[in-house]
Amino acid sequence: xxxxxxxxxxxxxxxxxxxxxxxxxxxxxxxxxxxxxxxxxxxxxxxxxxxxxxxxxxxxxxxxxxxxxxxxxxxxxxxxxxxxxxxxxxxxxxxxxxxxxxxxxxxxxxxxxxxxxxxxxxxxxxxxxxxxxxxxxxxxxxxxxxxxxxxxxxxxxxxxxx
Length: 162
Hints:
- The protein is an alpha/beta fold.
- The protein has a single domain (22-161), classed as Carbonic anhydrase (Beta-carbonic Anhydrase, Chain A, 3-Layer(aba) Sandwich), CATH 3.40.1050.
- The chain contains five helices and five strands.
- The chain has helices at residues 3-16, 42-46, 65-78, 98-109, 123-136, and strands at 30-35, 53-58, 82-88, 146-151, 158-161.
- A five-stranded mixed β-sheet has the order 2-1-3-4-5, with helices on one face.
- α2 (42-46) links the parallel β1 (30-35) and β2 (53-58).
- It is globular.
- The termini are far apart.
């Protein structure tokens, strides 16, 4: 059975007990920006339930233009007010060479990506930059409650970055 077939089988079981539609606006008025890393269980680590928060994920949990677009929609049209950024230890983006990756893609396909994949070497500094990026984004009306955390993948604990 392929991974996708497994998902479809699991969905059939889920749908049989589905409680029905939930409200469009997140109950906690919270948006979480986090890494796409499969080791991060945001629901468990943050004690979130379906419908509590918007979860916006990408490689590194970085506030890229696309993430800021989603965050602007989240706040302006769907009522979120607070923002949590989560980076994590042992991230694949740590030490990532964006220029080499982009050159490889261009060489293999003949098309240079219109996006970049910024890596980082200092996770604390990268988090401070991420917080500043969100706080300085004028598309986002509610920038006063933006906090950043590093998730330790060996302990499951969050450590706030100031």
